[in-house]
Design brief:
186 residues, mainly alpha
Length: 186
Amino acid sequence: TNGHINNKWRGLYKGVARTNDVLNTLKSVENINDNRRKQIEAEARFLRGVYHFEARKMWKKVPYIDDNTYDLNDLESTKIPNDSEIWPMIEADFEAAMNVLPETQSEVGRPTKYAAMGFLAKAKMYQGWDISTGAANKAKLQEAKALLDQIVNSGKYSLADKFDNNFRIATRNNKESIFEIQYAVS
């Protein structure tokens, strides 16, 4: 229904706003070391990429709003045209995150290099086929395969012993999981 679609749109772009708020606030923070600053920026760009990726999948022509466009104090700042393809910006967010994030995180649920790499591969796969003609974009598919090969060859992930372990609370974040959102049951 329309309400669900509006809620999805609102939720995704609230996420985009929050990530841009983090990035803009980070620019004025002084007492933080460079490694921590880079980590925060990479995590925010990863999440911004995820939100835009979901919006692009659902609605095709959507606005890409970055930290230079977004202004917390100007409600009009995000009213920009949706007349350009945003895949390059989504890819840039995932690439930036992939190049900074560590291979593992001490806290479960934080994105890693491989989570960013996996989302970048997924974004490339979505560009791998022209929906109107059915033609393959072999270059994008080959780029995705190279990234997926790196993930597999890292040796950090393997298939779960039982397929349903991917859907059970007791076995979440298992050896097959590259990135999971951490939900709480209340």
